[in-house]
Amino acid sequence: MAKRLHIFLVLALALFLINPESANGTTFPGILKKITVPSVEKDYPIRTVYVWTPDVSDDQVSKLPVVYLLHGWPATPNGLMSGTINSLNDQFNAGTSPFIAVFPDGNAKTHVDSEWADSYDKKAMIETWLTTKVIAAVEGDNVRSKDQRAILGFSMGGYGAAIIGLHHPELYSQVVTLAGYFVVDDLTNAFGVNNKVKRALQTPSNYLKNSNQIRWFLGEAAQDYTLLIKGQASAWAAKLKSKGASFKISRIDGGHDYTFVSNEMAPVANWLKWA
What we know:
This protein is of the alpha/beta class. The protein has helices at 2-18, 58-61, 77-93, 126-139, 156-167, 196-201, 232-242, 258-271; strands at 31-38, 46-53, 66-70, 100-104, 149-154, 174-178, 215-221, 246-252. The protein has one domain (2-271): Alpha/Beta hydrolase fold, catalytic domain (Rossmann fold, 3-Layer(aba) Sandwich), CATH 3.40.50.1820.
């Protein structure tokens, strides 16, 4: 009986790695691994990270670039995975340079609208976790150079990708924002009430001096009428232009949803450049 149980568990693990499913039941190609990464805060001691590796030979895996994909709010990594993995896989099968896609969970308990930030009271330390613990857990001994690493985000994740990229231009060569915004939107006071110092630290325009160290992809849905989002890509592009930063605006049909994200994966995958 014990031997049968052992065989069953081995087969179940093999099936998960070969033909895995996300929590919402979607089956993906390639290999999707769910890992847990210790946090740097008391409220959320362990966080989940999904790592998707496309179907490449074993000797290629260690050479693949890595892209970190940040979800919006309220959401989990599942929606973003469903909106990206199959589309990316199609692009890789068509000859686009493949990469590893990493989907961390950026939710928080005290400040549920985390903005992918370190909160003023340190109850949510998501930026620090992402830029230290997650990179270390995913890349291990094969730490990528910034030219082999990018950060992408949708909605709140777009803001997170932008501000984290600006805070850490030494880590990321490219930032992709899909229906993102470039202003402070702090619904659950992660930055404190009237905390001008913390809000200044989280305002992307205050870090424009770093913007020309990064390539920018600004994705915009033509039918996205979200007040926070509308016009943000064009406004940010004007600021990037003033600093001589390299950027591309991609405006396609769609709304504020994962169908738009999925449709942007072809332009994104073909735009990314790796050293």
